Amino acid sequence: MLRRTFFSLFTGLLLAGMVGLTGCGGSDRPPLGQVTGTVTLDGQPLVGVNIIFSPDDGRAAAATTDAEGKYELQYLADAKGCKVGPNTMYLEWPPEAEDAVPIPAGYTSATGQKVEVKEGSNVIDFPIKSE
Fold first, then answer.
1. Could you report the per-residue pLDDT of 6-58, keeping only the tens digit for each?
2. 5 has pLDDT over 50
3. For residues 105 and 77, what is the distance between their CA atoms, to the nearest angstrom?
4. C-alpha dist (Å) from residue 6 to 11, 14, 17
5. DSSP reduced 3-state for 42
6. Res. 98: pLDDT tops 70
7. What predicted TM-score, i.e. pTM, was given to this entire model?
């Protein structure tokens, strides 16, 4: 009886360990490219605007431009970058933005700009002109 109980306990622990290991095998995160750049409007930094890269399929990556108009995309809280492949880039002001200048056509969520993100480091600047 003791032998049978030990065998059942051992088998249960072994199976539980195997099930636990199957979830640790790989990441469902797609290949990411590191994306940085500068957004300017008529030669001046566009400060505090959200820049979003949205792939045809999957999670978008985003950033907010700093005082110099620079950005670095973030895919997840613990992962910088953007999904490799074709993306549509667009800009939007955060709801709390004051004195926000209009975003020119071609850079809004309705239209956007097509960009290609490659593996490794990508520097993608957006020198935008007013309409």
1. 333 343 433 333 334 334 545 678 999 999 999 999 999 999 999 999 999 99
2. no
3. 30
4. 9, 12, 16
5. coil
6. yes
7. 0.78
In single-letter form, the type of residue at position 70 comes to K
Domain ranges (residues) in the chain: 32-128
Residue 15 DSSP class: H
For the chain, give the longest Cα–Cα distance: 85
State the DSSP H helix or E strand holding residue 63, giving kind and residue range, or none if neither.
strand 61-64
Q: What is the CATH number of domain 32-128?
A: 2.60.40.10
Q: Which residues pair with 39 in a beta bridge?
A: 126
Alpha carbons 107 and 126: distance in angstroms, whole number: 10
CA distance 62 to 82: 8
Q: Per the structure block, which two tokens stand in for 107?
A: 């850079």
**Category of 120 on φ-ψ map: left (φ > 0), alpha (ψ -120 to 50) or beta:** left
- The one-letter amino acid code at 29 reads R
Choose between 105 and 16: higher pLDDT: 105
- Those residues with Cβ within 8 angstroms of residue 7's Cβ, 6 or more apart along the chain or in another chain: none
